[in-house]
Design goal:
With 338 residues, this protein is α+β, with helices and mostly antiparallel strands. It is built from three helices and 18 strands.
Length: 338
């Protein structure tokens, strides 16, 4: 029985092997050992060529999409689709890049070594409902300037902190002292300051709020004056809301800044008003003249001190001693005579 079943299964195994080989050849796309090409509709073209229906027709003018702009390093490239569906590229000049950036069609280029930015708030701490100014300072690199009127903005997100931002303004340019092309002309050749008014909400909670933003500048070359493009760099502003910071110049308990109280005992009294008939001019109350420093003639002098007693000198000592010696000698001589 085993031999009978074994012979019975051999033709089935051979047919399965032939089907497997045939399906493999079809999957590889070979007929008679030669590859063939298939069309888009899944059929095979005679002679191994693609049918004409598989090629796409050229694009009409209304079908061509608008160009897109790609930032590659520090350069901007325009990528445009042609009518034959191929792609074309061309570099974008700095002037065109500025115009496109102002129109919002392309992003700014990263400021790699062009400038850096920092931010601070004055006052350093805001109370609820208080207003202040956020100073954003961009420090320009050497031979890098910003022309007055050029694009200079700072973008900060809304909704992160309970603060309302006002209209920002750029600080005034000063006569150039570093850039050779702009010597003596109004220019930002070292720093660019952007001031943003801020106001804390009346119900703002105390704490520190960090606002990540960007500074965007239209940069030119300081030696040639040529426009380089529009660049941006990140900036982080920290706003603190809480009680006001005490003034270090005023110490607790000091009387600085306080008005002195009037002393009722030393305050000068104005003379009482004398009643006058109606229509008669009333004399003005005379105020006592202010105290004047006493002159040298009016100042009281101290009483004269008694003259010191004369001190004995050497001559006086010798004189007294000589007189005493003479007296002693006369007394001794008188005793001998007796």
């Amino acid at each position: 029985m085993q031999r009978l079943f074994g012979f019975a299964h051999r033709p089935r195994r051979a047919s399965c092997l032939l089907l497997l080989i045939g399906s493999t050849l079809c999957a590889q796309g070979t007929v008679g050992g030669k590859p063939v090409k298939s069309g888009d509709d899944g059929g095979v073209a005679p002679g191994g060529t693609q049918p004409e229906s598989a090629t796409l027709p050229p694009l009409r003018p209304d079908q061509i999409p608008p160009p897109r702009y790609e930032l590659r390093g520090t350069a901007v490239v325009e990528v445009r689709v042609r009518a034959d569906r191929s792609l074309g590229e061309r570099p974008v000049s700095p002037t065109e890049h500025r115009d496109l950036r102002r129109a919002g069609k392309i992003p700014p280029m990263p400021a790699k070594g062009m400038f850096s930015a920092l931010a601070s708030t004055r006052p350093r701490r805001l109370t609820s409902g208080q207003s202040g100014v956020l100073h954003v300072v961009a420090v320009l690199a050497r031979d890098t300037v910003v022309v007055p009127g050029a694009l200079a903005t700072a973008s900060l997100p809304d909704g992160i902190a309970p603060i309302r931002f006002g209209t920002q303004e750029v600080g005034a340019a000063r006569p150039g002292t570093v850039a050779r092309h702009f010597l003596g002309q109004p220019i930002h050749d070292e720093t660019v300051t952007i001031r943003i008014p801020v106001t804390a909400a009346t119900d703002a909670k105390a704490g520190k709020y960090t606002l990540p933003g960007t500074v965007e500048l239209e940069v030119s070359n300081g030696t040639t004056g040529q426009l380089l493009g529009v660049f941006s760099c990140p900036v982080t502003a920290t706003l603190t809301i809480g009680p006001p910071i005490p003034d270090p110049a005023v110490r607790p308990g000091s009387t600085a800044g306080k008005q002195p109280r009037d002393n009722p005992h030393t305050a000068s009294r104005a003379p009482a008003a004398i009643p006058q008939p109606d229509g008669a001019p009333r004399p003005e109350a005379k105020r006592p003249p202010p105290d004047k420093p006493a002159s040298s003639l009016e100042r009281p002098t101290a009483p004269d001190k008694p003259a010191p007693a004369p001190q004995p000198t050497a001559d006086m000592v010798w004189l007294v001693g000589g007189v005493g010696l003479v007296v002693i000698v006369v007394v001794l001589m008188s005793r001998r005579r007796d």
